[in-house]
Specification:
Blueprint (H helix, E strand, L loop, with lengths): L1 H23 L6 E5 L4 H12 L7 E4 L6 H17 L6 E7 L6 H10 L6 E7 L2 H6 L17 H10 L12 H4 L4 H17 L6 E2 L1 H9 L4
Parallel strand pairs: 1-2, 1-3, 3-4
Antiparallel strand pairs: 4-5
Length: about 220
């Protein structure tokens, strides 16, 4: 009898928590953004969230899952299952990661394409790295990046970016707001680059960050 009462109380508490959580949200989608970096990408998307005054109950950004693309997808799936089992699943799960020199990048792209529910898990991949997206705020470039002795592909992108942002550093805050004036230019550049890459069956360079940015800035409808 006592056990039954405890079960019903716990069930009622969980149901009450779920109602409160949903009550704190606004009417637009509930979105999870799982990032490769602990600071750079989370700071960027949290900056976007602040700029457009998006509700933290709707938009969750996290980067505590390592830099390996497969670990990012695995973590995203774990958080999705936890919220789904609680009766409050995410509508979209965006996995933000770089190609860089990750050996399992092709496998990660294949895994996310097969992920279920269909069209819930979405790869926001950058080749070679996230800073290429930032570079497109200043310059349209389709130059391929190849690793050189003592000079990685991402270091090459960073060098180009610093010609426009001399004080830029990984993990820097305020980047989204600082570049808002060039956002439409970057969005157009990223679309052009991606179309060109797909036309030639290549991905170096390319990025899909603009797809997530566009979704978030229009999420309120």
């Amino acid at each position: 009898m006592g056990t039954d009462n405890l079960f019903h109380k716990r069930k009622a508490k969980n149901a009450g928590d779920l109602v409160r959580r949903k009550g704190n949200r606004e009417t637009y989608s509930k979105v999870l953004i799982v990032c490769e970096g602990e600071k750079t990408e989370p700071n960027y998307f949290n900056g976007l969230k602040d700029y457009y005054a998006l509700n933290s109950a709707n938009i969750k950004v996290c980067g505590e899952c390592g830099s390996d693309p497969l670990s990012i997808i695995k973590y995203g799936k774990q958080l999705y299952r936890e919220e789904r089992d609680a009766g409050d699943a995410f509508d979209k799960v965006y996995c933000v990661f770089d190609k860089d020199s990750h050996p399992n990048y092709p496998e990660a792209m294949s895994v996310i394409k097969r992920a279920t529910p269909k069209d819930t898990f979405i790869a926001i991949n950058s080749v070679p790295c996230f800073e290429y997206w930032l570079l497109l705020h200043f310059n349209y470039t389709t130059r391929s990046y190849m690793s050189l002795p003592g000079n990685s592909v991402c270091n090459q992108v960073m060098t180009e970016l610093k010609a426009y942002m001399p004080v830029y550093a990984k993990g820097q805050r305020g980047v989204f707001a600082a570049l808002i004036g060039q956002l439409d230019f970057a969005m157009n550049n990223a679309r052009r680059v991606l179309q060109d890459a797909e036309r030639h069956g290549a991905d170096n360079p390319s990025t899909r960050v603009h797809e997530l940015v566009g979704f978030l800035r229009n999420i309120k409808g």
